[in-house]
Amino acid sequence: MLSAKEYELTQKKAAEWMRRVGIAVTPAEEQEIEIADFNLGDLYNIGLEILVYVNTERVCAKELVMFPRQICPEHQHPTIDGVPGKEETFRCRWERFTFTFGQTHAKSEGCGSK
Asked: What is the pTM of this model?
């Protein structure tokens, strides 16, 4: 588990990375950045930094940051009791983004670097 100081430093680092690609992050938004280690206790290898704009049962709008060599565990939002699961779309804004998605397709792409 991250200490309060580590959490705050990681929020600042994630905000800096967002700003590097032209995403405006206010001081209030910086303090709202979620640091997710998926309860695995290994943030710098398995984790995600998230700035949430909207998050409902069906729609989400978020900025995601992944630091070098950091991975995000595969997860799903399945249909439950006839209610369709949430759709997610990801777009690389800087450096390379590589992913493998097992259920519908496998894909590995680079998006270039600045």
From this structure: 0.73
